[in-house]
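Hi team, as promised in this morning's meeting, here are the two structures we talked about. I've kept the exact order from the run log so nobody has to guess. The first one is mostly here for context; it's the second one we should focus on when we meet again. Sequence first, then the predicted C-alpha cells.
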Amino acid sequence: MNTQIFRQYDIRGIADRDLDNELVFGLGLAFAHFAKMKLGKSELSVVVGRDARVSSDRIFCALADGLVKGGATVVDIGMVPTPLVYFARVQGSHDACIQITGSHNAGEYNGFKMMVGADTLHGAAIQELRGIIADKSAAEAAQPGEIIADENVISDYLNYVGGNVKMGSKPLKVVVDCGNGIAGVAAPQLVQDVLGAQMIPLFVEPDGNFPNHHPDPTVLENLQDVMAAVREHQADLGIAYDGDGDRIGVVDHKGEVIWGDKLMILLSRDVLKSNPGATIIGEVKCSQTLFDDIQKHGGNAVMSKVGHSLIKAKIKETGAKLAGEMSGHIFFNDRYFGFDDALYATARLLEILSNTDQDLGQLLGDVPETFATPELRLDCPDDVKFDVPGKVAEQFSKEWEVNTLDGVRINFGDGWGLVRASNTGPVLVMRVEAGTPERRDELLGWLENAVKSAIA
C-alpha cells in the first residue's frame, strides 16, 4: 500500500498503480466500519458518485463491494460532479457519501472525496482510515448491505437550483468550458435551460482522457480557449470548471480572468446585502483587497487555512455565509448548504449579472488596483518543506507583522508575501501582492532570499 495517497484533504493516486481492487475493496470495508463507529449506527446509507475517468467504473465496483460487505447500503448516483454527491447526501438524508474522482489531476489519477454526516474527512480521519485498511481491522458484516440506484439526482439538483435563484431580465451570453470533465453532464443544462442564458459550449462531452486541455482553471494556459471564445462571440462572460466540478474559473466580457479572490469580492458584496454583518471567509493566499472589501461593506472578514475540508470546518465553526479560495472553491452557506459547488456558484453569479445593467468590469471597477504574482511553486522535499515557513517568519518578525496561521504571511504595510508548505506535494507555495509592479518584485526578491536561506 502506497501510504502517500492518503493526503490531507482526500485520497488520491495513480489508479492502475496505487488503487488496485484489493485496496479499494479494503477502503470500502474500512469506510463502512469507520462511519458506523463515528455516527454510532448499526445501519448505514452511503451515496457514491464518480467522475468520467477511465478507471472510475472499475473503482466503483470494488468500492461498492467493500461497502456492501461492510453492511452499508450503497446509493449509486452514477457519473456526476462532486457537488451533486454532497447534494444527494443532504437531500436524501443519507449518512455519508464518497465521490470517486481525480479532481484536476491528469487522466491516469483517481481518488476519493469523503463525508461522514456533515463532516468532510481530512487530516487525522483519513489517516485513521489508512490504519483500519492496513490492520485489516474492519470485519465483514453479518448482514451485508445492497446497492440501489438513484438516477434522478441531476434533475433534482437542477430543479432545486432553478427554484433557489431569481434571474433578472437582462439576457446573458455565456461561454461554458467543461474541459471534458464531469461538469458537462449538468452545467450546460443549468446555464441554458434552467438559468435561461444563451450558451456557447466548449468541451462539454465528458472524456477521462481530457483531449483538449487539462481541466484546471487555476492555470492560465487552460483558460485560453474560453478567453478566446468570449472575445469571438462577444459574450458577457466565460465559465470554466475543473475535472469534478467543484472549482470555478471566470473570464469577464473582455476575455480577462477574474481570479477566485476577486470573484469573492463580487459574491461577498451580494451576500452582505441580504446578510448585514455576516462572516465571510477567505484563505491565506487571497488578496488583501478581499478582506478589506468585506470589512468596508460591513462584513466580518475571517482568514482561513487553505483546503476545502478545512474551510468547511471553519464555516461550521463560525457560521460564515460565504467562503472561497484562490483556487475557485466557492462555498455558499447563504440559501445553500455550505459546501463547495462551482455549478451553484455559476447560478449565483449569473443571478447577480442578470439583475444589473453593469458588466463584470464595472461591478469590480472600484476595487483598488494591486499587482500580485500568480501562485508560485518551488520544489522542496517533504521532510524539509514544513520547517521553511517558520524560519522565514523568524527572519521577518523583528520588523514586520507575521501571521503563521498557515505557513507565514508577512504584512509589509504596502504589500504582503506568503510562504506555505503544500499539503499535496513536495512543494513550497509563494505569493506576493503590492501596490506597484516594482514593489511586488522587490518583496518577491526578499521572500525568495529568505526561503533560500531557510532551506540552506
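And here is the second protein, the one for discussion:
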Amino acid sequence: MKRIYLLLLSALLVAFTYSCNPGTNGGNKVDFTAYPLIPKPVQIIYSHGHFNITENTGIFCPEKLEKTATIAAEQLGIKQPVNTGRKKKGIFLETDTSLNIEGYNLKVGRRKIEITGGSDAGVFYALQTLHQLSGFEGLPSDVPVVSISDYPRFSWRGLMLDCSRTFQSPEYLKKTIDRIAYYKMNVLHLHLTDDQGWRIEIKSHPELTEKGSKFHPEYNEPERHQGFYSREEMKDIIRYAGSKGITIVPEIEMPGHSTAVLVCYPELSCTGKMDDKIFPFFKGPGVTPDILCAGNEETFTLIEDVIDEIVEVFPSEFIHIGGDEAPKVRWEKCPKCQKRIRDEGLIDEKELQSYFISRVEKYINSKGRRLIGWSEIIEGGLAPNAAVMDWIGGAKEATEKGQDVVMSPTSHCYFDYPYTSINSERAYGFDPVKDLSEEQSEHILGLQANFWSHIDREPELVDKQLFPRLLSIA
C-alpha cells in the first residue's frame, strides 16, 4: 500500500513540476475518492456534493489578508479582484489566534468556502490545500465538500540550497520557493559562503564579492556558476519568500570552509599566506587545512562587520554560522591560537573552537538573533543558547542539555546523494524524534533536507535530485 501511495505521490509531483496538469476523471472534475493531499492533513472529512470555483468566484477577507488572497487567486486562476463580487457564493478568509500559528480549518460547502488560519501563514497553507483540491486543470473546477483541520507536527520544515559551490540564480530561488511553499514547507536555508565562493554583498568589505565570488580564471567556470546577490536582490527574495510563509535563513561559514574569505584577506589565516585561487569543488581539497585564525582579533572584527550587515538584510530568528569540518592543524602550530588557548584557560583546540563559536554567539545574541550551526559546534562544549543542525550526530547530547535541534542527517536528508543511497521511501521513513525521550523531543524544532551543489550543478539536475523525495520533509 505504501508503495502505491509513493507512486501516486511521485506522479502528482512530476505533473505539477513540469506541466501543472495531473489529469482528471473527465472535464475538470476531480476524482475525490482517490485524491492525495500533500502533506496529509491531521483531519479530513469528505461529504457529498461540490463547490464550483470559476474565474469570477470572489475571495473575501480582512485587509491584512488581501496580499495572501491575491496570491491564491492567481494560483487558482481566479480573475475577480479580491473583496469584490457576489458574497452569496465565495471564498471567505479570516484568522483566529486560538489556532496553531501555522494551522487552519478549511470548510468547503456547496455555496461557500470558509478558511480560518492561526495566522497569515495558516490561511496561506489552507489555500494551498484548496489549490490541490481544485485539480490544477484550470477553471471552472469542482472542489469536493469537505472539512479539513490541519497543523504542522514541527515548526521547522526546511530545505538547504548550497549557493556557494554553485551559484543559484534569484529566478531559481523564487521557483524553489513557489514549490516548497506549495507543500507547506517554511524554511529555505541558503548556504552563502564556502571555499567555492562568497555570495552575499557586504558593503563594508566589497572585496568579499569583488574577488571572493569568482572562481580563478584558469578553471574556465561558466558565469552562471559564480556571482553574488546584492543586498537589494536578497531583500527582494526575502520579501517574496515571506509572502508565502517561508523564512530565509542565511549561512555564513566559519571558522572552516573559508577559502573565499582568506583569498581576500590572507592575513586572517594562521600562516598569513594564501594561494590566490578559488577553485571548483573537484579541483581542490574537499576540506582545506586553512581556516580563520581564532587567535587574531581582526578575525572577529571581520565577523562582526559581516553579522552587522547580515542582520540588516535577513529578518530571520536564526543566523547559521556553519562550524563544520574545521581542521585544527593550523591552530595547533599557530602562535596566536596557542596564546589564545593559554590566555583563556582552554585545554585544547576543540575548546578553542567552542570559544570561537561562543564568542560569535554572544555577538549574534546582542543583535536579538539566535545562532545555529552544524553538529561540530558541540566540540569542546556547546555554546549556551545555540541550536544544533544535526547532520552527523549531536541531537541526543544537545537535547539532554535542553538545547534546540534541527534534524538533517546524511542517512535520510542529503538529497544530493543518489536515489540508490536515499530513495523516496527511505526519506519518508525518517522519524526525527526516534530514540529520544518525550522531554528531549520537545527540543526538536523539525527537520531539513540538504542539497550540496558540487555534483549536480544545473537547475534541471537539482530538481531531479530534490523531487519527489523532498516532499517527505513537508
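Starting points for discussion:
The domain at 2-150 is CATH 3.30.379.10 (Chitobiase; domain 2).
The longest helix spans residues 349-366.
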